Amino acid sequence: MSEGDKALKVALLGCGSVGSQVVRLLTEQAGDLAARVGARVELVGVAVRRLEAQREVEVPADLLTTDAAGLVRGDFAGPVDLVIEVIGGIEPARSLILAALESGASVVTANKALLAEDGSTLFEAAEKAGRDLYYEAAVAGAIPILRPLRESLAGDTVTRVLGIVNGTTNFILDQMDTTGAGFADALEEAQELGYAEADPTADVEGFDAAAKAAILASLAFHTRVTAADVHREGISEVTAADVQSAREMGAVVKLLAICDLRDGAVSARVHPAMIPRAHPLASVRGAFNAVFVESEAAGELMFYGPGAGGAPTASAVLGDLVTVARNRLAETRGAGESSYADRAVLPMGETLTRYHVSIDVDDRPGVLAAVATAFAEQGVSIQTVRQEGREDDAHLVVVSHRATDSALAATVAHLRTMEIVRDVTSVMRVEGGDE
Amino acid sequence: MSEGDKALKVALLGCGSVGSQVVRLLTEQAGDLAARVGARVELVGVAVRRLEAQREVEVPADLLTTDAAGLVRGDFAGPVDLVIEVIGGIEPARSLILAALESGASVVTANKALLAEDGSTLFEAAEKAGRDLYYEAAVAGAIPILRPLRESLAGDTVTRVLGIVNGTTNFILDQMDTTGAGFADALEEAQELGYAEADPTADVEGFDAAAKAAILASLAFHTRVTAADVHREGISEVTAADVQSAREMGAVVKLLAICDLRDGAVSARVHPAMIPRAHPLASVRGAFNAVFVESEAAGELMFYGPGAGGAPTASAVLGDLVTVARNRLAETRGAGESSYADRAVLPMGETLTRYHVSIDVDDRPGVLAAVATAFAEQGVSIQTVRQEGREDDAHLVVVSHRATDSALAATVAHLRTMEIVRDVTSVMRVEGGDE
């Protein structure tokens, strides 16, 4: 099965929950991996911060080192063919990946933060070195997204990507939808169950999702989008009333990463939005992730699975490892990056959205006309208005047609200044519908 | 963008609804394709049955020929680099693909029937010729399945694949579930709407799904499974009462393609089954397809999208074309087949299933005990029994735990012979649950 003594030398950088599962799979699947690659895959070293740390999987002591740079340089077992980076964060991950590529190794990384902040530097280095840089595990964990977007849809034009790419926030919103709980209670439960960190900021404020949105937009539209290009709003302001309001219109609130292609320009944004319950993304429950792709010829596709976790992420890393190892043996490269399109990034104000606006108003004649006029003055067309009278005041729920985000924001700002408007109690975007 | 005058010559075999969309995409996407491949992709000929036929897309007359063999041989524009086969059926498709590979061309095919009947011959020919044979469009239309199973999960072990891989039957069953209609009425509606053929046999009797099950099992388990290995039951016997019964237990009836790996052996089967409404496959509506994959490390993944249609299928064909074209330029091959596992195929009787059995019985003491004994005698454990008394008879609904299909079949056969059993009114397998 293996071709003589040929073996590919693999260095693993990082041995946390993902890294230790990578070690486990490399060991347990050694036979299958050799068959699929066409050569033995040999783990020659594991760079860790502390030699003595507690690990999910036992790693032979002679493989462990705290000298990641030395391991990449080949000080330990000679030149390394493949480097797996699962340290995360910007540095030292970036320097190590660049050193690996320069020394002629192919690289597999799960590092979404680094790719979203400075992917260009990495991809250029890979291009220059003529080596592969694969990163399936960086977007939506184990869900295969990289090859579908980069290869399967290479003859098609992707126009939109809608993703539920953060399991923590999906768990919280799902709890709020199922139990009627408020954000704080749902977050607490997520923390108790291990779905949310003690400091949940990166998840609930959308930073994690924004990094993934940047990577998804880059992949889908063959251009460069960084995390700084992504408009970002988290879910900490989402109330039980918003979730209830969504329910009343047959919708559910999700934190979406939305990447659009319009007139040759792209936009990428992360914010909570209402989507119809009949939309495939609405059925994504708990901590699961999904990426919904719209393309001109293929139509609507969805990819669903676990977005995080040691073993699922390690599965994605190993899939990449097999591909780059095969390419290495064949002395070729994979489809690689295709950032030829170099598209403009639209500011949030120019993106097209729909709004769901809840307004407390005085209950007197002419109120509805005045509110409708406020929308019309900004050129925003109203799809539905629902009025609920309550003693001496009334409550209006307005759902707009698609308009620019800036026109909608201006409308809401104007509403807040109107005498008859007591309060704009909630504003939320609506996605996944027709108009 | 294109590398000088370098162009890859493409021959298209077949120009029906998929072929004409391939022509359209090759033309409209020419610039993007050249950027993604690294060379111009030039359509040099289109083999058709009749030159004068009506086509969805206009094809330049000088590209059309009725001499498919001559086109593949290079009689028209010299040697061909890439051959796309969208004729379908066994012959002449097989001979043309073999001739293409022998002459040094790489091949992209959408031909599920041929792959399921005689994939080995094609894969061996591709191996011998050192050329690519890609077939994403042959399974679940536009849904990317090939690369996820063959590459993304190459470092993992797939244990089970559950697929809704036939849009016609899913449409019919969805109608029955939504409207309460019987099979005949739902079929008629599907025919009126163009979702079912005038002769619906290939779809409703599960032949189409069985071919796809064979391909999925081969891909997922790195072995060879042919259509003849697949146990096949269609949906023509599914009644409105079955669908109602499923609803009562919180389930929905779907035609499933099920591929299992157990103790190193595989099984593949197609039959209607009840699955819980909370299962991701239950939310696959209308004519959509989905493939649900269970693997050891990644856990549960699902791939969803349109399973048929000219443009979606053409999108899958073009994605393959870009990959094989890139490989052609790099003088390498893709991951290709990996049928190294050579696994035994379990007969249907040995596969593990659960049964939902509806029984009309005499309403007298001891009936439940007698029925329970019939299950126990075959070693089949009962999960739930629901009894509904009706005048002088009673109705029992039994759901079993997992047991071999032969033990369950023997139980049902025995029930039918029992004096107290008036009729076994329905037997259906249950999938997607825990036990």
TrEMBL record, chains A, B:
This is Homoserine dehydrogenase. One of its GO terms (molecular function) is homoserine dehydrogenase activity. Pathway: Amino-acid biosynthesis; L-threonine biosynthesis; L-threonine from L-aspartate: step 3/5; Amino-acid biosynthesis; L-methionine biosynthesis via de novo pathway; L-homoserine from L-aspartate: step 3/3. Residues 356-429 form the ACT domain. The keyword Oxidoreductase applies. Signal peptide: none annotated. The keyword Lipid biosynthesis does not apply. It catalyses: L-homoserine + NADP(+) = L-aspartate 4-semialdehyde + NADPH + H(+); L-homoserine + NAD(+) = L-aspartate 4-semialdehyde + NADH + H(+). Catalyzes the conversion of L-aspartate-beta-semialdehyde (L-Asa) to L-homoserine (L-Hse), the third step in the biosynthesis of threonine and methionine from aspartate. Its EC number is 1.1.1.3. The active site is at K212 (proton donor). It comes from Nocardioides guangzhouensis. NADPH binds at K112.
